[in-house]
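Posting this for the archive.
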Amino acid sequence: MSRNDLILVICKANKWYVVTGVNADTEWNETFANQHTALVTSRFTNSRAKALLRAHDAHNKLQTEYGVRELYI
């Protein structure tokens, strides 16, 4: 059985969110992304480059199965 996880970089209103440990089957969709970005505790950056660097650094530590994916909402 695979881990089936990935790191999601979400772009919403020129804000970039990095979410680790996303389940590829159930959480890799627009509904999950909207719920995550609506949380008050969600951290973001205004730079796509910084978000991707953080995501790839996290991928190097966690070694997710599907790597880093971007989602625009």
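The first strand starts at residue 5 and ends at 12. The chain has one domain: 5-72.
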